[in-house]
Write a structure and sequence with these properties.
Layout (H helix, E strand, L loop, with lengths): L2 H20 L5 H6 L6 H12 L2 H14 L4 H28 L4 H9 L5 H37 L4 H50 L11 H4 L6 H11 L7 H9 L3 H32 L9 H9 L2 H37 L7 H25 L3 H11 L4 H9 L7 H24 L10 H25 L1
């Protein structure tokens, strides 16, 4: 009997049942922000499910196999970032509820374009949404690659077929359920990955590493976190930490909280709760590095570890849990970019309050289109570590303008400065990443977010100073 098929069928039946019973996608508030009534536990679980989802878990395992403890730096950076988010989470939730804000790009657009011309409003919104969509295409593609790497082993099919199947599953579910469905099924998916970690990952790590004693056999740079260089490690703590403040998926969940207090508490417990996962996943990869007889494709590390440490029945359950986690992250990313894009599209058409049913149809249509585009990236660039790192790294270019929007009473005075900051940061990040891919001996592409952050911050400060002089002269 194919146990993987058995568990997948069980899982799909469960989420279909709960989706039909509890999800009401015809209600826009429910579809977009879960009626802004999400309680603490489901809010923390859905946040953790996204941050420790399948793409992240498989990506961190692959990164652990490739680089060792450098991967843990990402987790530490995120914990610091959630502590920063806690300071603003309540404010974000209340502003969203008062002003009917549904996404992070929509918030920036409203804060910076008050009193500006229609053309500038639309241009600003398009740049913000465009860059965010670019970022989440990479993160979504990483989920497709992760799912494909599991399916091709489980069903002995080629990568291209596996990645297409993965994309179809995520696209169809996201189009039907919206955020309300995402949050609800995240709880099921998170439970599955917890069971897998407790009963397979942790015992397997201790078995392969002789109670962690064999870790000393790895190269020093894998143990001290410097495999990608000190610049990468320091850059994670200094520049990636504040990226939590600008994650679209986190903002959407803050908007969905039932009150400001819940949003703040969810930020705190999400940060504390994710660190153990960001330690365990790299250790799995390092364990495989110690036990493997030959060099492996990092993308295959997860499945090979599961197959080595559990019987077929439990391996199939674990793979299904990872597939569920991949779906959890993938549907979140796809849902977010679709919402943002549709709201920008309706703005260009000068439709301030489109019919809710029409908006929902647009979101579903864009979900299918964007899912297909992310699928093309996954088929042409099947490297989960690079997809994951470039996605989460590019986000940092929004940090300077977001801090300005959250702390300044009249950020619209510096709207042009914000636009310049975002645009230049995006260009620099893309340029350095491409340069690093083609010339890895000259520059580590995974560090492209560092010069991008610096340029974004400098561009904003210089442009603000020029704007102040212009205001004084006027």
């Amino acid at each position: 009997m194919n146990w993987l098929l058995f568990w997948i069928i069980i899982y799909l039946l469960v989420i279909i049942y709960f989706t039909i019973r509890h999800v009401r996608p015809q209600d826009p508030e429910n579809y977009l922000v879960n009626n802004r009534k999400t309680k603490l536990v489901p809010l923390v679980v859905t946040t953790l499910a996204t941050f420790v989802g399948g793409g992240t878990s498989i990506g961190l395992i692959a990164m652990g196999y490739e680089s060792g403890f450098a991967a843990i730096g990402i987790g530490i950076a995120y914990v610091i970032g959630f502590m920063l988010m806690m300071r603003y989470a309540g404010k974000i939730r209340e502003y969203g509820a008062t002003n009917k804000i549904y996404s992070f790009p929509q918030y920036l657009s409203q804060r910076f374009t008050t009193g500006k011309s229609y053309l500038f409003k639309r241009s600003f919104s398009t740049v913000v949404n465009g860059v965010n969509i670019f970022i989440f295409f990479f993160l979504l593609s990483a989920q497709f690659v992760g799912m494909a790497s599991l399916l091709r082993f489980g069903f002995d099919i080629g990568y291209q077929h596996a990645v297409v199947i993965s994309a179809i599953i995520i696209i169809l579910y996201t189009a039907l359920a919206g955020l309300s469905g995402v949050i609800f099924t995240d709880m099921i998916q998170f439970a599955a990955i917890l069971i897998m970690i407790i009963f397979i990952f942790i015992p397997g790590i201790f078995a392969d590493t002789a109670n962690l004693n064999r870790l000393n056999e790895l190269p020093p740079e894998m143990l001290n976190g410097t495999f990608y260089g000190y610049i990468f490690l320091i850059g994670l703590l200094l520049f990636l930490s504040p990226s939590v403040l600008v994650r679209m998926d986190i903002w959407q969940r803050m908007f969905a909280a039932r009150d400001a207090s819940t949003a703040r508490k969810a930020s705190f417990w999400s940060g504390i709760g994710m660190l153990p996962f960001y330690i365990i996943f790299p250790l799995v990869g390092m364990s495989v590095r110690l036990s493997a007889a030959t060099e492996l494709d990092p993308n295959d590390t997860t499945y090979l570890f599961l197959a080595a440490h559990s019987a077929e029945f439990f391996t199939a359950f674990a793979v299904t849990g990872l597939l569920a986690a991949l779906m959890s992250s993938g549907d979140s990313f796809l849902n977010i970019v679709s919402i943002s894009a549709v709201r920008d599209f309706t703005g260009w058409r000068k439709i301030d309050n489109p019919d809710p049913s029409t908006t929902q149809k647009w979101i579903r249509g864009v979900t299918i289109i964007f899912g297909a585009l992310a699928l093309s990236i996954a088929m042409g660039f099947p490297y989960i570590v690079d997809l994951m790192v470039v996605g989460i790294g590019t986000i940092v270019i929004f940090v300077p303008v977001t801090v300005l929007a959250l702390t300044h009473s009249r950020p619209h005075y510096y709207a042009k400065a914000a636009l310049v900051s975002i645009f230049l940061g995006f260009v620099v990040n893309t340029g350095f990443f491409i340069f690093g891919v083609f010339s890895p001996n000259s520059f580590e592409p995974k560090s492209s977010f560092i010069p991008a952050f610096i340029i974004s911050a400098l561009a904003l400060l210089v442009s603000m100073k020029m704007t102040k002089k212009s205001l004084i002269n006027d």
